[in-house]
């Protein structure tokens, strides 16, 4: 049995990256924005890091808690940077550690992109 739980939404007024994919064709700008997020999540290491952060207690994780993904620490840092640049993660330095969270509306935005509108 899975212990997965739904993350609470922090923002109630979600501004998705794009409309549901089956609603209408994406504009060039919408496709560009969505592609940046999907490209960042298209790497297996990045997807694992994103999943570890999203499913971590309280929805945030210290870099020290998520570095066991089969690559070196500098590579983990590189992948976390790419996820931040894509707008998927936010980070906060606390002392010597950096804590990561999924950006507030990302999960809802991604889910809405794939929701059926018809």
From TrEMBL:
Matching PROSITE patterns: HTH_ARSR_2
Record keywords, A-Z: DNA-binding, Transcription, Transcription regulation
InterPro entries (alphabetical): ArsR-like_HTH (IPR011991), HTH_ArsR_DNA-bd_dom (IPR001845), HTH_MetalResp_TranReg (IPR051081), WH-like_DNA-bd_sf (IPR036388), WH_DNA-bd_sf (IPR036390)
Matches recorded under CDD domains: HTH_ARSR
Residue span, HTH arsR-type domain: 26-118
Key word Transcription present: yes
Listed PANTHER family: ARSENICAL RESISTANCE OPERON REPRESSOR, TRANSCRIPTIONAL REGULATOR, ARSR FAMILY
Name of the protein in question: ArsR/SmtB family transcription factor
Organism encoding this protein: Streptomyces ovatisporus
